């Protein structure tokens, strides 16, 4: 991509800092309900499965809105979407602050999920507007990393507020945080000089979607996100903790320590992968395949290990699974570089469905397989035994395999298209030609 005059300017950095602040706030809103589980159980007089419904509703809303959001980012620009997202999250947290029934709480969580869904894709869309190509892979990684710090805001100050002030004031302060995000985004984010490139009137949604989907590079991004990210989500959102504690016999405190390795790995691996992608854009899918190989191999060894795995092996597993988070950001690079600028939002939305869809399916099927084995073993059988986990978590290999097939097919298709345009040769794939932006 040619460097425009406004690229990498002071204004660019202001827009980026404000937009990642909006994303950080969105991740805080996203993760706030999870850390208030015990208080929510009391407030709504809820069972574990009702509590789980709150997370599922939020994830389904998030994943389901990615494509509409991507299309709207291309039509209205990222600024409207980030400010709109902050407004929706504010409404959602207000409703949650006042809610005293499960139904009212779920409506609040629906709004939070919808506002959250509008943020990340818009922030990623701002990067090629404001920065030159070589900076974008690093900034994409940095965006992902900063966003994850939002989880710390939920874990530390929000939990402290919840304990000191109770439910309503704590959730009202989260609503106030989104007001801050709204005002900052409204005042300081701009769609840039390219904003007048938004394509004109009707049928745009269908056309944008079909243009983005027909591009094999978008589908390569979808499958890359699908395959790299889902094991991280499955581990962090649901099955990691019970697998470690009940399956592997690790103490709850050690399990929490092991889960915090995810943040460490993201902080270290993000810049490494970002600079690798910036220096070797022709190696992007190879980098993703290596991470996927490490995830599959580490799971294979842990699940085949006779008895409980030693601590060093569990650490290796978690490091490999955690690499999936930063590796999944490569998928957005495919969306950006294979599509014309007026379709990048839509393509980014499509890509961002991948990992969340794979995670939703896997979380559900693993739970179903655990239940099934318990039923088959008869009454009194342990739900979370190590052997039950071995079979249930093996479902991940099917998803990994399906994702890799999708990646190989779409990568080959992307290469064929590029070869037809004269943009790809086996030499360029080895990085010897000086051409950039291939997979
Ligand atoms: N450093 C890991 C960040 C992973 C981010 C992830 N790939 C992603 O797709 N995030 C979307 C979001 O809305 O957070």
From TrEMBL:
Highest taxon of source: Bacteria
Entry-linked InterPro entries: MFS, MFS_dom, MFS_trans_sf, MFSD1
Catalytic activity: L-lysyl-L-alanine(out) = L-lysyl-L-alanine(in); L-alpha-aminoacyl-L-lysine(out) = L-alpha-aminoacyl-L-lysine(in); L-lysyl-glycine(out) = L-lysyl-glycine(in); L-alanyl-L-lysine(out) = L-alanyl-L-lysine(in)
Keywords, sorted A to Z: Lysosome, Membrane, Transmembrane, Transmembrane helix, Transport
Subcellular location: Cell membrane; Lysosome membrane
Pfam families in alphabetical order: MFS_1 (PF07690)
Gene3D superfamilies the UniProt entry points to: MFS general substrate transporter like domains
Record field: transmembrane: 12-29, 49-73, 80-98, 110-131, 143-165, 171-189, 220-241, 253-274, 286-305, 311-332, 344-369, 389-409
Membrane topology value: Multi-pass membrane protein
Positions of the Major facilitator superfamily (MFS) profile domain: 14-414
Function: Lysosomal dipeptide uniporter that selectively exports lysine, arginine or histidine-containing dipeptides with a net positive charge from the lysosome lumen into the cytosol. Could play a role in a specific type of protein O-glycosylation indirectly regulating macrophages migration and tissue invasion. Also essential for liver homeostasis.
Subunit structure: Homodimer. Interacts with lysosomal protein GLMP (via lumenal domain); the interaction starts while both proteins are still in the endoplasmic reticulum and is required for stabilization of MFSD1 in lysosomes but has no direct effect on its targeting to lysosomes or transporter activity.
Family: Belongs to the major facilitator superfamily.
Protein name: Lysosomal dipeptide transporter MFSD1
Protein source organism: Paeniglutamicibacter sulfureus
